[in-house]
Amino acid sequence: MAKKLLFGEVKIDSIAGPSEIAIIADEKANPTFIAADMMSQAEHGTGFEASTAFVLSEAQAEEIRAEINRLTKENDLITATEKTFTNYGDIFVVDSIEDAVKAVNAIAPEHVEILLDDYEEVLPKITNAGAVFVGEYSTEPVGDYFCGTNHILPTCGTARFSSGMSVNEFMRGYSVIKYPENALKENADYIIELAEAEGMRAHALAVKVRK
Asked: Please, how many CA atoms are within 13 Å of residue 53, restricted to the half-sphere of its CB?
């Protein structure tokens, strides 16, 4: 709300939505790691976070679900995570990793984790994500707190057309145009035609008087 109120008065990064994670895992992925990483986003606690995993078998999905139940009980995190897991906590069983990649690109989530042996083949296929975490020890909180990547990332599908914040967000620039006489005379008719098509007769005139 503070960002929304200040938008237009000062530069802001974005008006971001609830946090999201999508995990792509093969059969060798550790179910405890997946469960804990799903919980790390669910604990934001509004109930609108999305905590999602894509796996290759029902048995694997059941293992992850069992680990979520165990870890939330043992670590007193049921209350913190239950809203999100009830509303947007999903473990999808897919036929292939390719299907998982297509789903993740359609979701365009804030965080993607790739827990695969052959992650190098899959990584270039992830086209819509705020940040991608590769390997079982690249847990999402590493990006939040320590490794130096930006933690201000696009959410709610906006990774389809935007990126995480960078230093460019806090920099300004302007263009300098020095158009030579011969270039203006060569292209004048095109500029005039565009200006007149918009009904901007004075714009067109500013070019005409220089022909």
From this structure: 32
Cβ–Cβ < 8 Å for 112, 104: yes
- 54, 90 contact by CB (below 8 A): no
Segment 51-110, tens digit of pLDDT: 999 999 999 999 999 999 999 999 999 999 999 999 999 999 999 999 999 999 999 999
CA 22 to chain CA centroid, Å, is 11
Handedness of CA 133, 137, 143, 149 (dihedral sign): negative
Give the separation between CA 51 and CA 88, rounded to whole angstroms.
Answer: 6
What percentage of the chain carries pLDDT values higher than 90? 76
Catalytic residues: 110-111
User: How far are the Cα atoms of 4, 33, 126, 171, 207 from residue 16, in angstroms, in the given order?
Assistant: 10, 27, 21, 20, 44
Question: Can you tell me the distance from the alpha carbon of 45 to that of 123, in angstroms, rounded to the nearest whole number?
Answer: 30
Nearest to 87 by CA among 138, 20, 24: 20
